Amino acid sequence: MTYTDSYAAPITDPLFDGDAGSFPLPLRQLLVRLLRGPYLDGSMDAAAWQLLLDSQDTLTAYFSEIFLALSLDMDRKIAMLAPVDIEQAHTAPIAPRRPLKRDETLLALRLRLLLEQQSGTGADAVISRAGMHEILAEHRAAADRDDKRFAESCDAAIARLGSLRLLTNTELSDEFRISPALAMALPLSSIQDIPRYIAAIDANESVLNLSGAEPDESDASEQTDALVQE
After folding, report:
1. What angle do CA 70, 75, 81 make, to 5 degrees?
2. Which of 55, 110, 137, 179 is the most buried (most CB within 10 A)?
3. What's the angle, vertex CA 87, arms to CA 85 and CA 89, rounded to 5?
4. Per-residue pLDDT tens for 37-96?
5. How far apart are CA 221 and CA 217, in angstroms?
6. pLDDT single digits (tens) 165-191
7. CA triple 9-10-14, angle to 5 deg
């Protein structure tokens, strides 16, 4: 039995009063981390990633019971939960997801393109706060003359993506790492589709429906589907 196999072995002693579970503490902790989300980054926690791989069948079965699918990106070492598509009562995700607003969606799409450009170089994809302000300035409405409010909106979009850990801090206060989880969070069939979605949002013609990778007929000023579970 390997070190991680022993983590997945059924427990014989309860962990707390009234404990009726069979999973050992490390596996339960991994369950909580995945449920809490938004994702698990195996490049940052090799032990948790190995435990996930060793216990993948057990975890998949557990999450299936509560209508969640476990998705893995083996190359980027990212694990993420997503609600399954089932039209039955009482099958909605346990944690409600707050949709991304227009600026948050535009920024996420542009960062996804940057991530793709950096792919294969062996280096992290990084961007400054000023760089993200410049990105959103390209999509700023011509009638928007309030610079202070625009800057606050940019920072709010950056903060939201940071809260989802799609942007993570670096050693520099105003420089951020674009998380490889963004590739899984945007389930688009082709990276070439992204400019089309951006143009549609800019034109207020349609909203990107990230769950189906096709735009719907809603107004782009409305909020879009969430990228990942919060």
Report:
1. 15
2. 179
3. 120
4. 888 999 889 999 999 999 999 999 999 999 999 999 998 899 998 888 888 888 876 655
5. 12
6. 999 999 998 999 999 988 888 766 567
7. 135
